[in-house]
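Tip: read the tokens left to right.
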């Protein structure tokens, strides 16, 4: 990659492009993260008398609310990923930088960034906005991550989709009835919006999308279990919505279990 910046003035390209705070006439706003918050912050700075630099280690923005549809093959990954760089075309004071931030020095007001193919460099700032989002939480059981992927990125969605489709392929191939039942049993932990949406989408995938794709198994015979540590699904929403959601999930064939906490996860379940 010869150039990583879309700014037509090439403000950040080259060894001497990152100016020191003393030589810069215009203030610089640096935003770390190209998610919803980062892009909103960049757009809100459109009329600011400042240079805005949006830094992200990916060159695309992910519409996270639809990750569950990518995980169940309803949507292709590219349908929920939009390139960040076109923002700089519409917003004249914005520069998009592909890099991973490795450190922040508040005393010198600089950021340490690692750019693909270019290595480390320092980016000075006058104002800093950190909008990097939240990593998935396993509530003190990080060892679960090896067997139970979260749903935060396109890689996560693709991993889950592969797990689901591979399970049906193995169920179709095996002659062992107990192994077939195991492969066609899916457990989701957490009945917040993502867990509920994913469980419903998986149920529809099994009953409709894959309905006639196999000869030896019926995907609709899958067991989909949704576990929740609280006393109801969607615990942050109104109880009436929780009751309606539970009824809808059960109608789709999802087994909802509340008041259940996961203590162990391994390769067997």
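Filled-in amino acids:
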């Amino acid at each position: 990659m010869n150039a990583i910046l879309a700014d037509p003035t090439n403000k950040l390209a080259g060894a001497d492009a990152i100016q020191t705070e003393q030589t810069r006439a215009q203030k610089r706003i640096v935003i770390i993260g190209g998610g919803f918050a980062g892009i909103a912050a960049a757009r809100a700075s459109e009329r600011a008398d400042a240079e805005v630099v949006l830094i992200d280690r990916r060159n695309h923005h992910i519409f996270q609310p639809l990750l569950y549809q990518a995980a169940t093959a309803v949507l292709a990954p590219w349908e929920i990923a939009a390139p960040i760089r076109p923002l700089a075309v519409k917003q004249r004071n914005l520069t998009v930088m592909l890099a991973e931030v490795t450190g922040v020095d508040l005393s010198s007001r600089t950021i340490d960034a690692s750019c693909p193919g270019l290595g480390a460099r320092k980016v000075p700032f006058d104002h800093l906005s950190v909008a990097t989002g939240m990593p998935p939480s396993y509530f003190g059981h990080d060892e679960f991550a090896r067997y139970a992927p979260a749903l935060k990125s396109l890689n996560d969605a693709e991993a889950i989709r592969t797990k689901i489709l591979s399970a049906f392929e193995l169920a179709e191939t095996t002659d062992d009835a107990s192994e077939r039942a195991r492969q066609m049993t899916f457990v989701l932990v957490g009945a917040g919006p993502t867990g509920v949406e994913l469980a419903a989408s998986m149920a529809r995938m099994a009953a409709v999308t894959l309905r006639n794709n196999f000869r030896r198994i019926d995907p609709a015979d899958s067991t989909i279990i949704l576990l929740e540590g609280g006393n109801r699904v969607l615990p942050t929403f109104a109880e009436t919505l929780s009751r309606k959601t539970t009824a809808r999930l059960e109608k789709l064939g999802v087994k909802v279990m509340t008041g259940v906490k996961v203590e162990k996860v391994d390769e067997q379940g």
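Residues 70 and 76 are 6 Å apart (CA to CA). DSSP finds seven helices and twelve strands in the chain.
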